[in-house]
Specification:
384 residues, alpha/beta, Urease, subunit C, domain 1, TIM Barrel, 8-stranded parallel beta sheet, 12 helices, 27% helix, 28% strand
């Protein structure tokens, strides 16, 4: 398959913005891009030529495909559903309609054997858009557990890193670093090639720094399920903002974090904010009753909460809405796009994603001037 997108503003994912340009995708990768009209040889080689302005209207924009590294579900399905293949297909399709070409399957806390089984099932249901699995737990602080079942929490000593990584493609795990044995567990996962995030934690600044020294490189949904930022106790957020090694997740739905903080956060940690959805099964679905792991969730007005409580239980956010939200809050468009593409991809070690550069994966989104996805391609193949 060979596709030429032309006559669009092109954001390559690096700090490059082509006012009017073209992108050529072939054999699953980016073959070239440039300003102005595409060279005759590229036009001749393309099996399909898409006039971006004709399809998306004036102000048409082309960006890399969006990358969501924290997603629990969508379309009424969750990644821990019994029928893994059906769940994966449905969730990928829902998020692809919103510009997401690659995502990581996040699992809430559960018994280690159950997690092994789910990792194995998801790995067996592998799809091109599924990058791997993120364990959001079970080694979390009980008082910062959020929408994780108390009974499912475990001590770091109870996890077998070799068994979990052997079960399938585990790419990330969230750990509360103050738990006994947590620093050794962080070192073991990092040694196994798994990215470690600090989150759902009571850790102070000193313990957060110890976690980073042990290899932690992400902060799970900044400001949520961690001690608040305080001028004498900066905690995980303050430490992560100050440390260039850390990428901070942001759920930009206006519920998890007030929009007035979006632009400040981007300025405080330039190039290190990763937009994530933290979407649960209700993303792309109506309000109603759902489940997150073993816990009952009620969604009202698009906000998911544990039934009968004020505890937020994931979100119904999609990543295109997150991009629009941060742009509306004053974040420059190039920074917003990078936060949904290049930054999360690099946070999990995928330098071939989130960029429209030669030999990177051929993932692209065509947007209208209002930042609504019009068409989406993964590996050069149209998804929506």
């Amino acid at each position: 398959m060979s596709l030429l997108l032309h006559d669009a503003r092109v954001i390559t994912g690096e700090p490059v913005d082509i006012d009017r340009g073209w992108v050529h995708l072939a054999d699953g990768v980016v073959r070239g891009m440039g300003a102005g009209d595409a060279p005759p040889a590229v036009i001749a080689a393309a099996a399909e030529v898409v006039d971006a302005r004709e399809m998306a209207g004036p102000g048409a924009l082309v960006t890399p495909g969006l990358v969501d590294i924290h997603t629990h579900g969508g379309g009424g399905s969750a990644f821990d559903d019994p029928d893994a293949a059906t769940a994966v297909d449905r969730i990928l399709a829902v998020h692809a309609a919103h510009g997401v070409t690659r995502l990581v399957a996040s699992l809430v806390s559960a018994a280690p054997l159950d997690l092994e089984h789910t990792i194995s099932a998801l790995s067996a249901a592998a799809r091109p858009g599924l990058l791997g699995i993120h364990l959001e737990g079970p080694c979390l602080d009980v008082d910062h557990r959020g929408a994780h079942a108390r009974w499912a929490l475990r001590s770091p000593e109870s996890l077998d890193v070799k068994r979990l990584t052997a079960a399938g493609r585990l790419v990330q795990i969230t750990i509360a670093p103050e738990l006994p044995g947590a620093l050794d567990l962080i070192r073991a996962f990092v040694a196994a090639g798994v990215r470690v995030a600090v989150g759902h934690t009571a850790a102070d600044a000193a313990k957060t720094r110890e976690a980073i020294a042990a290899g932690a490189s992400l902060l799970t949904h900044a400001f949520n399920a961690v001690p608040p930022l305080h001028h004498r106790a900066p905690g995980p957020v303050g430490v992560a903002l100050a440390d260039e090694a850390m990428t901070l997740e942001l759920i930009a739905d206006g519920t998890h974090v007030d929009p007035s903080l979006f632009a400040w956060l981007f300025r405080a940690a330039p190039g290190r904010i990763a937009l994530v959805s933290d979407a649960m099964a209700a993303a792309g679905s109506p309000d109603g009753d759902y489940r997150l792991g073993d816990l009952a969730v009620t969604v009202s007005g698009g906000i998911a909460r544990l039934r009968g409580t004020d505890t937020i239980a994931g979100s119904t956010l999609t990543l295109d809405r997150a991009v629009r939200g941060v742009v509306d809050a004053g974040v420059p468009l190039l920074d917003a796009v990078a936060a949904a593409t290049r930054v999360p991809a690099r946070a999990i070690g995928r330098d071939d994603l989130g960029l429209l550069q030669p030999e990177c994966r051929g993932d692209a989104v065509l947007w209208s001037v209002g930042l609504e996805p019009v068409a989406v391609w993964r590996d050069g193949i149209r998804l929506s």
